[in-house]
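quick one, 81 residues, struct below
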Amino acid sequence: MNSTVTILIVSVLWLLMCLRFWSMISRENVWQRRLIAIAGGLGAGLIYILGTQVWGVLTKPSPDDMRPIEAAEDIRVSPKS
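---
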């Protein structure tokens, strides 16, 4: 739960930073403002998606996922195709 909130906060901070840059650009530079707006949205989405992916990889698996190997017969290796 805390990890999701942290990732959301970082995404919102990215959006706010891009909004600040967007507001500093003159209204005459329409394409620059559009690019900043697109970068803000895509960047926040990518931060959220990659953040959740990386956080899932970095956390330990639960004890239910890890079961001890009781015998050598429990290990199976598939041949290369």
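The CA atoms of residues 28 and 34 lie 12 Å apart.
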